[in-house]
Amino acid sequence: MLKCIATFLLLFLTLTIFPQAKLDNLTVEKIMRDPKWIGTSPSNPQWAADGKTVFFNWNPDKAISDSLYFITTDSKTPVKATVRQKQNLVYANSLLYNKARTAYTYIKDADIFYTDIKTGKTKRITETTETETNPQFSFNETKIVCSRSQNLYAWNIVTGETQQLTNLKSGSGSSAKAGTENSNQQEAWLKRDQLQYFEVLRSRKEKKDLADAYTKDTKKKELRSISIDDKILQGLSISPDGRFISYTLTKPVTGNKNTIVPSYVTETGFTTDIPARTKVGELTGSSEFFIYDREKDTVLSVKTDSIPGINDLPDYIKDYPKQSEEKTKKPIPRSVYVYGPYWSEKGEHAVVEIRSDDNKDRWLMLWDTATTKLKLLDRQRDEAWIGGPGTFGILGWIDENSFCFQSEATGYSHIYLINVATGEKKALTEGKYEVQKAQLSKDKKYFHISTNEVNPGEQHFYRLNIATGKKEKITTQTGSNQVTVSPDEKYLAVLYSYSNKPWELYLQENLPAGRQVKWPEPKQITFKAQSDEFKSYAWKEPELISFTARDGATVYARLYKPANPHPDKPAVLFVHGAGYLQNVHKWWSSYFREYMFNNMLADNGYYVLDIDYRGSAGYGRDWRTGIYRHMGGKDLTDNVDGVNYLVKNFGVNPKHVGLYGGSYGGFITLMGLFTEPNVFVAGAALRPVTDWANYNHGYTSNILNEPFTDSIAYRKSSPFYFAEGLKGDLLICHGMADVNVHYQDAVKLSQRLIELGKDNWELASYPMEDHGFIEPSSWTDEYKRIFKLFERVLKGSR
Predict the structure, then answer these.
(1) Cα angle for residues 460, 466, 472 (degrees, 5° grid)
(2) What confidence tens digit (pLDDT) does each residue in 601-645 have?
(3) pTM for this structure?
(4) Beta-sheet strand order (sheet of 414-419)
């Protein structure tokens, strides 16, 4: 990624677009040697187990890669970590404490360790060639249980003894014991008759029975063997009291066809194949959730075929009457996956999260340890798909009866408290904003939360009182504050950035403004994110604006206004990629290359608009799912309405508008040129999806369902079907080794355009690039082409 920075500077200098910047002393050769031209930002801050030291990745020396640095709450000067320090490093977020927080366990070097805080002594519980995982306190905190080779083992904290708890085995089930006799009536009669008339047989049988009884009484009790057949074992864990062991068995699918991505430029000179993913609609595996009761020595398969709404059909099925009629007559329970269980501290209650495979339902269910039945606590249904920040798993138990979770039930992700005994549910946060991150305090009286309550384009940190619902705002700097809390919860390590200022590391007290004692203001730790060369140019602070879409929704956007608009008043829309992403905000964008390119366009007289269209993150459920069953619908019209905003407010010439973007942004570019040819006269589609039936299952099936169940959605959403609408000038750029959006998409569209007789398009192929380009030469070539396209088409009389 760092090499990409050099690309843009190379492009800028090549095009001589910054006469006012003090970059004359930089040569292309120097920039290529020094990809850290922007500067260097710290990343991934983590507190050490001692609670006083913060480690982070950083590269102030412009080395080949980042190194590990640290500061302490007393000495705030960054120091590079030694090899020994890195070898002995244990991060606080890897520690699992007991209830009294007098001891903790953790994994290091694939082994399990235990530390007694009172004595300060650490014991290495395991030292094996095998890998131990998932340590947890159990048996009322007298033992530490971990997983090894698909089985659970318990280490007694006092005696040091290790006990195997499960005997899960691959392969077929246990065979019948040798000597087991048939029990039909004829053979039973014959046996009785033999014993009645032969004294020697009776005597020998009596001796054998006595010997067998003695052996049974003295023989070591065997651990029950449980077969997992040819299935994959997942989620092996134990209850706090040591009684219940839970696990999931997944049966993988065979026969799915994987795609192949050819790699043409190789060391050997031969074309090689890169194994890739399957396509949307391929079969998925089935799973079953089990709980093993060690006390009763029974294995229970937790059944989900009767949970509320398990047979509910999606609304879209109404568009297919025949399919709807068949499924209504013969309802089949939907396939689900069970996550958890999430046990209360004493193990009195267990909550499981159940998600339907079609991702339209999430159930939180109480598993009753006495009746082994499931009881509904909360159901969230979304006819599009369940998602949003924090909506997987639970946030934790407040007491033995109450736990917290997040839900988008109101349209925005908020925190809820539910009592499993009474079923009472209470919202701890509410409003038209998202709780984007939440962490329960160690005393379970507060949540540390990050939200965008102040503005959709800002991220701030709060302390939320669970009892009163009162929030206290801790961070004050405008932009994004990405916070990592110290183990004692007294300090915060904060990564902070602003629109035109890359990330720096700060340290501050976990107290509201005005109540901090040690540092009245956040203490800046690093100062290397902006080099002198970078600061020599006045990088624009994009103006955050909003406009009203045709359906009345408020759309947020970033606006780059030219100081000297070109006489033809051209405009360019940048369309960010997707997955679930926000780019209209007041912090340093992950699209830093495009940010620099947008500065370049504005300096060349273009108005540039960057929109958080429907489907973008940060604006709640309805915005997130606004693209359901029609990608290229509201997401595209939001961009068209953005053009109307520019025309109305800045006099942009509607005949001089282009757009560009990568991945989903490339897809929107194609849909814009194909379906709105009178709005967009030029576009650069970078690594675009041209046919959603070619993309992966996890992402695509949420939004468009499956091609064979909802062909209408795919027909409306794939540019391939609208290529005949192309009138303007199109540039397609695609890496030929792209394992995300395959080069096949560009090839298919090319053939379609050829057959349609279109001659105002071109395909630029990059033989050695994946979805995200690596080589500076590739980035340079791509953006030179984009700039030339816009200069040629968007300027001059039309």
Answers:
(1) 35
(2) 999 999 999 999 999 999 999 999 999 999 999 999 999 999 999
(3) 0.90
(4) 396-397, 402-407, 414-419, 425-427
